[in-house]
Amino acid sequence: MAGAAADFRELQRRVQRMQGTVVSRTLPSLPGLSGLIQLRTGAAYGVNSAALSLALLAGPSQAGEWIGIVGASDLGFEAAAGLGVDLDRTIVVPHPGEHWLSVTAGLVDVATVVLVKPPVRISEHQAERIKSRLRQKDSALICWGEWPRCEARLSVRESAWIGLGRGYGHLTGQRARVDIFRASMPPQSFDLWLPDAHQRVVEAAGQVLALDRVKAG
């Protein structure tokens, strides 16, 4: 019965997507991110690093959603698979050229989450047109770069890799300080492993710190 209910919900979403019905839902996140931020369809998000991009993609991808990637030709797909991104359900357009915006809009029609790395700054008008499409198509967008009036922006302020010694060893994990900016609440800062030695994205500290407290310390 549970499988039939899941199939029915998926059919409903496909019908809504084809009809252009305005919907919004919360997408699955990796366990290490679920208490910090969860993507919602109909919204755009900004990031400043490949690691954050992959971490946000991995949750929906592991849950069976289709993923689109536009313009991020330097993204590490071995790292993506290591975090749990299902490459068999990922559509990649690494070199869209001057048509990157129309390619992004096209992928919004078929993928639940689209990651785009714009080659140029996007205008407010262009961003609003994409956002309207996101609402109609039950999709979310992650911009690796600047995106006007996004729902939230995640920024790696500083990071350090572990695993290397003096002339020996190999990289096993990345610890990062991530700032999250939302329009509706004060900025926050989190210590995360992106990933840890077991390829997991998890909090590196036991508590969430307000950004001003981090600066004061």
Description of the molecule:
There is one protein chain. The chain is α/β, with parallel strands linked by helices. Helices cover 31% and strands 28% of the residues. The chain has 6 helices and 10 strands. It has helices spanning 2-19, 50-62, 77-83, 100-108, 124-137, 211-216; strands at 44-47, 67-70, 90-93, 113-116, 140-144, 152-164, 169-182, 185-193, 202-203, 209-210. Strands 1, 2, 3, 4, 5, 6, 7, 8, 9 and 10 form a 10-stranded mixed β-sheet that branches. Helix 3 (77-83) links the parallel strand 2 and strand 3. The longest helix is centred in the N-terminal third of the chain and has 18 residues, at 2-19.
Protein topology:
Layout: H1 2-19, E1 44-47, H2 50-62, E2 67-70, H3 77-83, E3 90-93, H4 100-108, E4 113-116, H5 124-137, E5 140-144, E6 152-164, E7 169-182, E8 185-193, E9 202-203, E10 209-210, H6 211-216
Parallel strand pairs: 1-5, 1-6, 2-3, 2-4, 4-5
Antiparallel strand pairs: 6-7, 7-8, 8-9, 8-10
Helix pairs in contact: 4-5
